[in-house]
């Protein structure tokens, strides 16, 4: 007996989850894409909302000066497009935007601020000073240069403060 169903490609789900995407820009095959739409895994909205006032549903721009009317070759009517997010591709009133509402990906719940390395003496001093400033509710400016060794992801005061905050909640 052959399986005749359809299995959702995880790459398609992972790509669209958490994004507002233009339908015509999807990098997946029409076959898979049509099947996902058929399964109601996308919420489809218009690119430009006209009522009660103009609003771009991608960038949420509502400034009327940022909208322009043009003769659209796609729908062969006058369309409105948003100039605010034009660099990401034109969103017009006949554009369909897709929002993923299908099954969510199962993601690991590892703590993103956990690091098993060791600070240099100066890094440890900077971390301690920032931690003290945060505890004292003072602002603190730290001038730092991040290299190619991901030093920007090794800073621990935020993690320490988060733990203290969570402990206070209990």
Describe the structure.
By secondary structure, this protein is an alpha+beta fold. It has helices at residues 10-16, 30-38, 121-135, 157-169, and strands spanning 20-22, 42-46, 48-49, 55-56, 67-71, 78-82, 96-100. The strands form three sheets. A three-stranded antiparallel β-sheet has the order 1-7-2, with no helix packed on it. Strands 3-4 form a two-stranded antiparallel sheet. Helix 3 runs parallel beside helix 4 (157-169). The relative contact order is 0.14.
| Contiguous runs where pLDDT drops below 50 for at least 5 residues | 165-170
Ends: how far apart? Answer: 55 Å
Q: Describe the largest sheet.
A: 3 strands, antiparallel
- The total of helices stands at 4
Helix/strand class: alpha+beta
Mean pLDDT: 80
Order of helices and strands: HEHEEEEEEHH
Radius of gyration: 24 Å
Spatial order of the strands forming the largest sheet: 1-7-2
- Kindly state the percentage of residues in helix: 25-40%
- Taken as a percent bin, the fraction of beta residues is 15-25%
**Overall form:** flat
Q: Got a strand count?
A: 7
Jot down its keywords:
170 residues, alpha+beta, two-stranded antiparallel sheet, 4 helices, disordered C terminus
Task: Walk me through the topology.
Layout: H1 10-16, E1 20-22, H2 30-38, E2 42-46, E3 48-49, E4 55-56, E5 67-71, E6 78-82, E7 96-100, H3 121-135, H4 157-169
Antiparallel strand pairs: 1-7, 2-7, 3-4, 5-6
Helix pairs in contact: 3-4
Short description:
This protein is of the alpha+beta class and 170 residues long. 26% of the residues lie in helices and 16% in strands. The protein has helices at residues 10-16, 30-38, 121-135, 157-169; strands at 20-22, 42-46, 48-49, 55-56, 67-71, 78-82, 96-100.
């Amino acid at each position: 007996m052959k399986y005749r169903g359809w299995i959702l490609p995880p790459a398609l789900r992972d790509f669209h989850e958490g994004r507002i995407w233009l339908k015509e820009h999807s990098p997946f095959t029409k076959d898979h894409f049509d099947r996902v739409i058929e399964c109601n895994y996308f919420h489809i909205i218009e690119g430009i909302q006209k009522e009660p006032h103009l609003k771009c549903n991608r960038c949420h721009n509502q400034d009327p000066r940022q909208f322009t009317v043009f003769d659209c070759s796609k729908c062969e009517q006058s369309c409105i497009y948003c100039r605010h997010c034009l660099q990401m591709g034109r969103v017009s009133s006949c554009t369909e935007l897709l929002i993923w509402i299908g099954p969510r990906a199962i993601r690991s719940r590892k703590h993103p601020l956990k690091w098993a390395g060791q600070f240099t003496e100066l890094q440890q001093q900077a971390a301690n000073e920032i931690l003290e400033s945060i505890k004292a509710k003072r602002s603190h400016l730290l001038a730092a240069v991040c290299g190619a060794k991901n030093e920007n992801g090794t800073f621990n005061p935020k993690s320490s403060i988060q733990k203290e905050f969570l402990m206070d909640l209990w």
